[in-house]
């Protein structure tokens, strides 16, 4: 039995050879047995194979004695929301996010929407799948569950609706699921939405929705210019990540969005803790401190950040990869809450998005994440650390190695999932220095890789 679809944080694989209804049914049985869950939320994304896989998954859950609450076609965050809001034992989202069209997968959570990954149950579920199963003495029941009304109410609770003003916003769902939510929110907001690739279509006629790829950005940027919009937003397929474009159509690095959201959130809460990843940090630390909050660094990755937020009772957590987490959203990531907060900020401040961001880019220019395929990543990282830690102000190993000097810093880390090394460099208000050090580090990595 091919169990290669089980990864570190979720399941992902090609349909039907790596994931199919027969395997999905066994995964449902294994999930119920291993977790002991009796009430489970099931939702699925817009992929063509998703309804069939979700049905088979639900059959397995019910055969093992768990009641299935089916929330139907949705985004990952609706499974998170429904699991925590209705106090279920767990939830499973059938999605392969931004993977190729012929792939599918699952994201699993337990009570309170806590992530189930390889270090807390996912490997146990994988190991249970190939073993024989018997049916539970009492079959679980099936119940459709309407969650959209409660979810939309929850989203609107993050903003002061009285401060919102009419403006045009470009929204690009990439033919994923985000358009369904925009259509619901539209009835409650004064914004005029210019909709691009809006219809949910698992054939992905305009390519797989993944705005982090540069070639996928032009269509949103051009629409912003064409409509004279205040900003543009693009999502991935299951809309747990959102990406921003300013009123000039410029794509904004996720790093600067983390700082802006932290600032906006702390203004509302009057302080609190903010969790951020170690790749780029100075801008976030600066804004959090100025807003009366406390910035705390965590290892990159949703399972680490969510746990650290719980440990610290943090109000918000952000990664430069466009994942944004909220305490009041069961510490989970949402692709809808961030843009609502930024739209609110534009309305309240009267400023353009570019003016809010430009000041931060000038204060802390950054390289953006640069990936290099390296034959022996640990060797290269160790050699770079040995060379650059001499005379450094601070060396940290929260995630890979972060080395800090008075006027510049960098983070170098291995990918969790592929043989690449990821580099991020930033400086204090000095673009030439940031560029010089980035080029220097890349040349050194190239030399060490020979």
Give a description of the structure.
By secondary structure, the protein is α/β, with parallel strands linked by helices. Helix content is 36%, strand content 22%. The chain has 14 helices and 20 strands. α1 crosses α2 and α8 (254-269) packs across α11. Residues 102-122 are annotated as: Disordered. Its cofactor is Mg(2+). This is phosphomannomutase.
Give the percentage of residues in beta strands: 15-25%
Overall average residue pLDDT:
97
Main β-sheet, in a few words?
6 strands, mixed
Question: What's the end-to-end separation, in Å?
Answer: 40 Å
What helical percentage do the residues reach? 25-40%
Biggest sheet strand order reads 1-5-4-2-3-6
Q: Structural class from helices and strands?
A: alpha/beta
Low-confidence stretches: none
How many DSSP helices?
14
Q: What is Rg?
A: 22 Å
DSSP strand count: 20
What's the short story on this structure?
This protein is of the alpha/beta class and 450 residues long. It has helices spanning 21-35, 50-63, 76-85, 122-128, 148-156, 178-185, 218-227, 254-269, 282-290, 302-312, 337-349, 353-363, 377-388, 431-448; strands at residues 11-14, 39-44, 67-73, 90-94, 103-109, 142-144, 168-172, 192-196, 231-235, 242-245, 272-276, 293-297, 316-319, 323-326, 332-333, 370-373, 394-396, 401-404, 408-414, 420-427.
Which SSEs are present, and which pair or pack?
Layout: E1 11-14, H1 21-35, E2 39-44, H2 50-63, E3 67-73, H3 76-85, E4 90-94, E5 103-109, H4 122-128, E6 142-144, H5 148-156, E7 168-172, H6 178-185, E8 192-196, H7 218-227, E9 231-235, E10 242-245, H8 254-269, E11 272-276, H9 282-290, E12 293-297, H10 302-312, E13 316-319, E14 323-326, E15 332-333, H11 337-349, H12 353-363, E16 370-373, H13 377-388, E17 394-396, E18 401-404, E19 408-414, E20 420-427, H14 431-448
Parallel strand pairs: 2-3, 2-4, 3-6, 7-8, 7-9, 11-12, 11-13
Antiparallel strand pairs: 1-5, 4-5, 9-10, 13-14, 14-15, 16-20, 17-18, 18-19, 19-20
Helix pairs in contact: 1-2, 1-4, 8-9, 8-11, 13-14
